[in-house]
């Protein structure tokens, strides 16, 4: 986590919701880190949080639910069906300030679920590009099979989860402020989405 503007604004980047990957690559225990981060935000009286979920390809359900317990203001449901459906109770020191979420096409699976829940509850301003996946339905519980003719191994999902109610238009979560990448930004290393988030906060 990075704090700027004397603690009034913070940036939290989450690379994955896969606990094993976070432990092996980043040496982090997700629950412990999230508890610590939001304790600091509360102590610092942070008023604006930039949550960077770009290129977070998801992971397990529980980390997403746990993060939402610190971001949602009211009790809400995570998934509408299946054994992974849960009621999320906001943590005592949940974040109550302004939330800006950076997303792109690499934000899918559980990241798309988290984004859809935040959008459903009108909890965040989204900046960047449309998330991957879909904001209403998602498939999971894959089983590995061997195709008989080609002997190619592949994974086939066996369960469909409902994320939110609504008409499925085939889209993920659309950004409130679209920021398509430009060649110039890529070549110069400029982070246009982050710059816009900071500009919006400054206003």
Write a compact overview of the structure shown.
The protein is 31% helix and 25% strand. With 203 residues, the protein is of the alpha/beta class.
Classified in CATH, the superfamily is 2-enoyl-CoA Hydratase, Chain A, domain 1
How many individual domains?
1
Q: In sequence order, what are the helices and strands, one letter per element?
A: EEHHEHEEEHEEEEHH
In total, the number of strands is 10
Structural description of this entry:
This protein has 203 residues and is of the alpha/beta class. The protein has one domain: 2-enoyl-CoA Hydratase, Chain A, domain 1 (Alpha-Beta Complex), CATH 3.90.226. Helices cover 31% and strands 25% of the residues. A hairpin with a 7-residue loop joins strand 4 and strand 5. Helix 2 packs parallel to helix 3 and helix 3 runs parallel beside helix 4.
Mind sketching the topology for me?
Elements: E1 2-4, E2 9-13, H1 19-26, H2 30-44, E3 48-52, H3 61-71, E4 76-78, E5 86-88, E6 98-103, H4 110-120, E7 125-128, E8 137-146, E9 153-162, E10 177-178, H5 183-188, H6 192-202
Parallel strand pairs: 2-3, 3-6, 6-7, 7-10
Antiparallel strand pairs: 1-2, 4-5, 8-9
Helix pairs in contact: 2-3, 3-4
Summarize this structure as a short list of keywords or feature phrases.
203 residues, 2-enoyl-CoA Hydratase, Chain A, domain 1, six-stranded mixed beta sheet, 6 helices, globular
